[in-house]
Amino acid sequence: MKEDGMNFAYGWTPKNAYFGSMDFLNKYDLEKICEEISSQDLEECIKIDKKYGYQEIRKIKAQKDIDDLMSSALSFHDAHIESIEAKNDEIHVVFNPYWNRKIELWFEEKPKYENRLEDPEYYWWDGGSIFMNQGYIYLCDEINAPSLDEGDWGIYFAGKGLFYRVLPSDNN
Predict the structure, then answer these.
(1) Exposure of 160 by Cβ count < 10 A (0-12 exposed, 13-18 middle, 19+ buried)?
(2) CB distance 152 to 86 below 8 Å
(3) Is 125:80 a contact under the CB 8 Å cutoff?
(4) Which residues of the chain have pLDDT under 50?
(5) How far apart are CA 167 and CA 80, in angstroms?
(6) How many Cβ atoms are within 10 Å of 166's Cβ, its own excluded?
């Protein structure tokens, strides 16, 4: 369970390193909750779930969205690019599963990218940066880069629109 503050707004409290729980569900054994949960508590869970508004694919619109992606992607630490596919007006980038998650990104609306690395073997990132500049959203393989003018980056991607999704790793 993510402990980045997002779930705390919905009443989630950390139970241990691997599970979270709603306060009113603490009375149940997690292993037996499906058999033991009362109809009232189940209704409360459904009501809370409807408020959440889960979006599998998210759009970057503001700095908060960038912060959420960087948190979900662990700042692209130890990330490795699995594929880069540029077609029409879109660049689709997939990062291999790492830290138990796989990240997919779509750069749209006049997308562009530059790759200074010749061999895909070197597509490993120590970390990355996402920033906005002149109507574009950039992702580069330089930690804390405020722009492309600074730093020793090897790859960058940009588009006027950026969409992403975080999937669990197949390696779990």
Answers:
(1) middle
(2) no
(3) yes
(4) 1-9, 17-19, 172
(5) 15
(6) 17
